[in-house]
Design goal:
Structural class: alpha/beta
Helix content: 40-55%
CATH architecture of the largest domain: Up-down Bundle
Low-confidence stretches: 1-17
Order of helices and strands: EEEEHEHEHEHEHEEEHHHHHHHEEH
Strand order of the largest sheet: 4-11-8-7-5-6
CATH superfamily of the largest domain: Dehydroquinate synthase-like - alpha domain
Number of helices: 13
Largest sheet: 6 strands, parallel
Oligomer: single chain
Length: about 400
């Protein structure tokens, strides 16, 4: 027996006992009649692209931190690396005591081990702890950790939320603040991947104090990328302060360090905002330094930091621009000079004409058939070379020779 009460609840009689069920009226659009004899229909799928990148000092020193607030009442799985866990594991576990963080998964993630096996490890841990559709992954580490967690979050139950807490400079200003996650496949860097925006990216410059110098230097390359491609003021700041910041772990000068981080992050997000899923155009200024570098990393067995490969790529791209008359020798010297000031390499003997040709062919496949090689047209300005025929073997040979001679003269 069933009767409806005055408040909209339903009382169900079950042998003398009863319980109340709440009836919720749902808003409906329609029902609409189907269009007559349609041959095709449009399904507009709006994707969420909004997320917060938040500066949060002393992130691990409080149980009421921005990270705790971002997790809320959801069941969470924290993924980190052995180094980060050794340095900050106790602090983050204490900070998360009041949350429903069910496990800390420590993965030995490095660029050379960035594979689907690691993604499966994250998915298995999430499964064993019963993460539901409201479940949450937290990436606590560098760019490779973020890659693994982002791809895992996109797959678990067809997509759950994730938060990033980057602990490297590249993570803070580049890899940790975008939408993408990926793993390597058959020697191809980041061949399998996804677009899966995080809910929050929490930026705490304090992590940089304990970062090894080489990792800081590698991260500075991504700031230089944005300075050359679109922000002359950032480039000027790097010319003046990059060595001091790297030496001090971004502690001194404080104002310059904060400005470098904020300008780099703003430039990256501003560039991504008009084409977050890379479906509007394949012309992306943020690809500066990322045409030759993936092939170089693979050829060296990933025994080179990502930022170091990006620096070599930027140096070669600038030398191509010089050879084509797009920049003056003075601008070229400034670009190579800022790389040297930051202790970044500008040349690798492994970068030969054939490797460059292979890299540009892969860039064409990645960029919808156009090469879209980003080269500087000044400081704070860049242009795209679209046709591979614009970059001939003789141009590559000449540019590589100039770069090699410059590297030898400054060694």
């Amino acid at each position: 027996m069933q009767s409806t009460t005055f408040d909209g609840a339903v009382a169900v009689d079950q042998g003398g006992s009863s319980r109340s069920l709440t009836v919720v009226e749902t808003a409906r659009v329609g029902p609409r009649p189907p269009p007559p004899q349609w041959a095709s229909l449009s399904m507009d799928c709006a994707a969420r692209t909004s997320y917060q990148v938040v500066f949060s000092n002393a992130l691990l020193q409080s149980q009421t931190s921005a990270l705790v607030e971002a997790i809320g009442d959801r069941k969470a799985l924290l993924v980190t690396t052995p180094t980060v866990d050794r340095m900050y594991g106790s602090a983050i576990r204490a900070a998360l005591e009041k949350t429903d963080t069910v496990s800390t998964l420590v993965l030995n993630v490095r660029e050379e081990t960035k594979s689907m096996e690691l993604v499966q490890s994250v998915c298995a841990e999430a499964f064993s702890h019963g993460l539901n559709r409201r479940g949450l992954l937290i990436a606590f580490g560098g760019g490779v950790c973020s890659d693994i967690v982002t791809l895992s979050a996109s797959l678990i139950r067809r997509g759950i939320a994730h938060i990033r807490v980057p602990t490297t400079l590249i993570g803070l200003i580049d890899a940790g603040i975008g939408l993408k996650g990926a793993v390597n496949f058959r020697g191809k860097k980041s061949f399998i991947g996804c677009f899966h925006p995080p809910e929050h990216v929490l930026i705490d410059p304090a992590f940089l104090r304990t970062l090894p110098r080489r990792y800081l230097v590698s991260g500075v390359a991504e700031a230089i990328k944005m300075g050359i491609a679109r922000d002359e003021s950032l480039f000027d700041l790097l010319e003046r302060r990059s060595l001091d910041l790297v030496t001090s772990g971004f502690d001194e000068p404080v104002v310059a360090g904060r400005e470098l981080l904020q300008r780099s992050i703003w430039a990256m997000l501003d560039e991504l905002s008009t084409n977050p899923y890379e479906d509007q155009t394949y012309e992306r200024l943020v690809d500066f330094g990322h045409s030759f570098s993936p092939a170089l990393e693979g050829a060296l067995g990933f025994d080179i930091h990502h930022g170091e490969a990006v620096a070599i790529d930027m140096a070669l791209s600038a030398t191509i621009a010089l050879s084509l008359g797009l920049i003056t020798p003075d601008v070229w010297q400034r670009i190579l000079g800022v790389l040297r000031t930051a202790s970044l390499p500008a040349f690798s003997p492994r970068l030969d004409v054939q490797l460059c040709r292979d890299a540009l062919a892969e860039a064409c496949r990645q960029r919808g058939g156009s090469m879209n090689l980003v080269v500087p047209a000044g400081i704070g300005r860049a242009v795209f070379l679209k046709d591979p025929r614009e970059v001939t073997d003789s141009l590559l040979e000449h540019s590589l020779g100039l770069l090699s001679s410059s590297a030898a003269a400054n060694s």
